Amino acid sequence: MSEKFNIKFEGDKSLWVIAGILAIASIMPVYSASSNLTFSHGGSSPMGYLIKHIITLGSGFLIMYFLHKVNYRYFAPFAVMAMPFVLILLIYTLAQGTTMGNANASRWITLPVVGFTFQSSALASLVLMIFLARHLAKQQTPITSLKQMWLPLLLPIGAVCALILPANFSTTAIVFAMSMAIMFIGGVHWKPLLQIIGLGIAGLALFIVIVMAFPNISNRVSTWQARIENFASGSVEENYQVDKAKMAIAQGQVIGLGPGKSVQKSFLPQSNSDFIYAIIVEEFGLVGGTAVIFLYAMLFVRIIRIAIKSPNTYGTLITIAAGMGIIIQALINMGVAVNIFPVTGQTLPLVSSGGTSIWMTCTALGIILSASQATQTKEADTTSKTQESKIEDAATA
To answer: Which of 22, 132, 140, 153 has its CA 20 to 30 A from that of 295?
Structure first.
């Protein structure tokens, strides 16, 4: 059985196990929280939403399985070829307008035939991270000035952030922060990084001024302002979602109300996606909430271990680039639920209901698993050489 498992599922086994546990653990909360969607939107039953969630998870794990069989070196040229495509995709998404079915249409596109909605910024973020990892790994000398970065680094970062910003500030901030982190890890000097941060702040300020002068361009600035004000004031009336999430967490206490027995799921908007963590704590208590945090902490440890033990710089950078977004997204989602951060709309990776989030998380994990195989090969070679050395020493003794 062990040999069969090794043949089919290669790469870091702990990573496979953690991803599988998170996916299985999501089934009950998603099923429970989906009753709110049935009540508010009608149509499909909770079982229908659950089946869709399971199908999405299944397709995501198929993506992960396929990608972990691909040599991780091939992702670098793919990112170069995909970068123009994702920029066009972001432009197309942004051009749809501001609303579609009372939702922000500038974040989503509808896939033909299957009818699934897809958040193009998630794909653009992952492609950009791999693109940066590739360039930084090829860089032979330390980057100490902006002149070395304009075309290969700043242009793609600026283009992606500028096209996501009008519809989604939180994702833009995450993409920008991850870009700074991967460049710092990749050897960029701190002085040009500070200059880039200054340029980013100036670009955001310019965007806000333009939107205030021409409100028809985007309605997001007023939304950002309202969320920040609500978070700072703690207004119950204005901050309805966070208030209900806090009530759900308070009711959970130590062991929770029990599977499917959440009360706040009937009142909390986006209870099966953005605020799924609050439902988990309400139904499974502090024990369940802590277990989820522990799983993401273990995922972080495995990602760092794979990155550190990678045989080359590119393996280290692509592992961090692919894994960083998962951990940051998880921290922000849980932070919003417990009122540490303002509402952002970020989902809980592999747990929240939603196609794009699950698919992109599985894509990132597939890339990391592919890179982990090189790490295992390096460790095996080292072990083999050590054993050979011991044998030679014993023979000559």
So the answer is: 132
Check: pTM over 0.70? Answer yes or no. yes
Per-residue pLDDT reduced to its tens digit, 6-65: 457 788 899 999 999 999 999 998 888 887 666 555 556 778 888 889 999 999 999 999
